[in-house]
Amino acid sequence: MSPTIYTIILSSLATGTIITMTSFHWLMAWIGLELNTLAIIPIISTLHHPRSTEAATKYFLTQAAASAMILFSSMINAWNMGTWDITQMSYAPSNILLSLALALKLGLAPAHFWLPEVLQGSTLSTAFIIATWQKLAPMSLIYMTMNNLPSMILLMLGLTSSASGGWSGLNQTQTRKIMAYSSIAHLGWMAMIASIMSNIMIMNLVVYLMMTTALFTSLIGSKSKKIKDTATTWTTSPTLAIIMMLTLLSLGGLPPLTGFLPKWLILEELIMQNLAPMATAMAMSALLSLFFYLRLTYTTTLTLPPNTLQMKFKW
Question: Taking every annotated instance into account, which residue ranges of this chain make up the domain NADH dehydrogenase subunit 2 C-terminal (predicted)?
Fold first, then answer.
């Protein structure tokens, strides 16, 4: 793809997100989401490979379905309440439909099956865009409609996402799929706190974006597509291997590191709201995610060939 076209597509992607984040009318928000989807499709399918074409098709179908559901829910709300204002979503059926549509758009469980497949079919840099930038527009819609979304549905979506992100990630050897399941689990934490305290959700989103950016940059730099590729990162750059280890542990949420802060605040807030069983379940599901982060950390920095050589050298 020529740099000019790539620049135009990336600026369209940014414009779509910004339109959604700054609009108060549902039609404008929908236009932003559609622009966003249409801009990322050529980026996913640049490889001219059956896997990337399949990923682009899957992404397009799920996002188009989710956008249509969002438009439908806002139309129902406008029909019954006479307003297209995003902050005035007060009709209960349209709120339920909207929360399910946003779950499909973000990749929250049980509507998460498209996300690992799409990330696996894309390049590492495209997967990075999908896992970070593409989450901004739906999250801003959640933030704007926060007061009206059914909190029980959000809590259940959060719990199932965190658990299924942890369970499914245990079985993976591809770094892109691991990052997809990591994204699902983190979004689960955000959905969990969304209806209770939106400030913590925003902080969690910012921390997640920073850590995921750091990790994807490390993976792109070391060309690590599988877990076994990470074992030879130290041959390229020992510093990068150490940074990667710290980022992985931070994503897992180990105490002295940044990733622990949002989890701690969310658990504290859940307990204050008398949701101790929910907090316990979330903490347990975080342990599942921690296991596969620790496995990546182990292969990245704690194995030095030729003592425990499970991997091939880069040459």
Answer: 290-315
Distance of CA 37 to the CA centre of its chain: 15
139-153 per-position pLDDT tens digit: 999 999 888 888 899
Helix, strand and coil percent figures for the chain, each rounded to 5: 80, 0, 20
Q: Which residues of 273-284 are buried (b: 16+ CB within 10 A; e: fewer)?
A: bebeebbebbee
**pLDDT for the residue 212:** 93
What are the structural domain ranges in the chain?
150-313
Q: CA 66, 67, 71: angle at the middle one, nearest 5?
A: 120
Maximum CA extent, the chain = 70
Q: Give, in order, the Cα–Cα distances in Å from 21 to each of 86, 172, 315.
A: 11, 34, 47
User: Residue 109 corresponds to which tokens in the numbers above?
Assistant: 């469980």
Residue 195 has pLDDT above 90, yes or no: no
Determine the Cα–Cα distance for residues 127 and 224; give it in Å rounded to an integer. Answer: 13
pLDDT single digits (tens) 87-115: 888 888 999 999 999 999 999 988 889 99
304 pLDDT more than 70: no
CB 26 within 8 A of CB 89: no
What's the CA gap between 178 and 173, in Å, rounded?
7
pTM: 0.91
